[in-house]
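Narrative summary of target 7.
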Amino acid sequence: MGKQIRFKVGVRRGGCPTIPGMKITSETKKAISVILIYLALLFFLIGMAARFKSDFHSRLEISTAGFVVAAVFATLGVISFLFSFGGKQD
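Modeled conformation, tokenized:
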């Protein structure tokens, strides 16, 4: 009989990903960065809407949280977009 190959979940061998055959191309990285940037825009707009209604109860906290989350998503989006220009994985 043939040689059996067993994979253990969560174990890396020689720098390969845990799921064999899963590779992220530069196009996928760019798509992820665009999604993150649009999420940042969404949370920014939520923060702006809460800021306009800040005279109501707890809207200022929602506004601040919206701006913080927008900044985090925008940062992650820009970083992933910049890393998408790196060398392609084979």
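The chain has a mean pLDDT of 78.
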